[in-house]
């Protein structure tokens, strides 16, 4: 049972899905270098306006999927509501956000988090909370991996975001945050404060067997969402090419921390948190490389667990890591009982594995056509001398080791571990040379207040220079928690610690003169 409740009204943003690759009325470019087409001819849009990340790929339109793409875009853009029937119904009983746009403004990565209260209701704040046991780095059992911050009446939010604050702390590296020529830069990182009174089940009487809730001994980190564009192209990279990349990096000894042994130990691990079922290929999505292929990856997962809208292949609710703690304490809440029913009825509803599907198969198909069909923007200023110089320097100083410039897609056979009957309708990108600037592997940067476990997939750089234009954000919001406000800060965080895998190339960047540093920045912003 879900009470009728509209969480938030969003202004409809018109889809600028004109004929590709011009999209938005631009004319296709001629005589451009191959790296101009970041997603290959089938995956690139030349529309680099504020709507750049919303464009369908040429492959999507050529396959006659433009209408389905637009329908999926509408589902992703608009908020879900808690109605039991009607368009985009089924939000809740608890949820992280009510729409894709809340975390992915204009389908870019999330915006930077301001100092002070964690503003979860702000459209564009795609920075999620990560609550962990600091000794084990595991998620706490009494919250979900992506903790829900809202509840649909009569249910209460597992976390009260109004009690959570974010403070930005300054950091100083071995250079005193100053280049040899006197130019300075700043480094900052977030610290999150979350009292145990923000946790619903604690207020209802739950006590953590490890004592983390009582002592507030848990740790809270931030993880920003990444742009959803181009995911279909990454999905099309051949499995063997990724396996070969792992073998190469494992053998050449260039990484100070090697490869994550929980993920790769002479081959992919087949058990544990990082296990890879190679029937479906190596995992390639999320910072922790926990998802893949795309039909079972972050987007397919998020349209369910962020909103808690059920579908035919997921007829259950996303509640907490344990699976039953929230249900136990919500079912005993007198106010919930008053509005919903008996303790047994509430618990059965929250823990049922056979709930009615609230999103239809057709709607999910539309969402996945949209998700797999999002283009990447063409590189900008590809004939500019400054950008070309930066491209050369990017390689010379070693940035292209982890930020591998290009891959070539294979036959692109869409796969789905869940066997959802939609794969035949997906857009495809066979035999395309693409330029995402990632090796698809985790590395360690050893930063202050680092990402959970310290291991993080190399984030693709394509399109990142258009974030401010697409979102109106004051900063570029780079790195996993938006700590870097611009490219310089992002680069220098890579070498903050001498134990970082990227320490050597960062030091080479530090030694460049200002003209050359500016050229590298111009190149990174152009791709």
In short:
The protein has helices at 40-43, 58-62, 66-77, 100-103, 200-203, 212-215, 231-235, 239-252, 298-305, 325-331, 334-340, 343-351, 361-372, 385-396, 467-471, 487-494, 503-511, 514-526, and strands spanning 44-45, 94-95, 116-117, 127-132, 150-151, 165-171, 187-193, 219-224, 376-377, 407-408, 433-434, 442-444, 455-457.
Short key terms for the protein model shown above:
globular, disordered N terminus, 18 helices, 3-stranded antiparallel sheet, two-stranded parallel sheet, 13 strands, 527 residues, alpha+beta
How would you explain this protein's 3D organization?
Helix content is 27%, strand content 9%. The chain has 527 residues and is α+β, with helices and mostly antiparallel strands. α16 packs across α17. It is globular, with a radius of gyration of 23 Å.
Strand order of the largest sheet: 3-6-7
Structural category: alpha+beta
Overall strand count: 13
Please summarize the sheet with the most strands: 3 strands, antiparallel
Radius of gyration: 23 Å
Mean pLDDT across the residues is 93
Coarse morphology: globular
Are there runs of 5+ residues with pLDDT below 50, and where?
Answer: 1-27
Calculate the terminal CA-CA distance, rounded to whole Å. 48 Å
Strand content: 5-15%
Helix content: 25-40%
Give the number of helices: 18
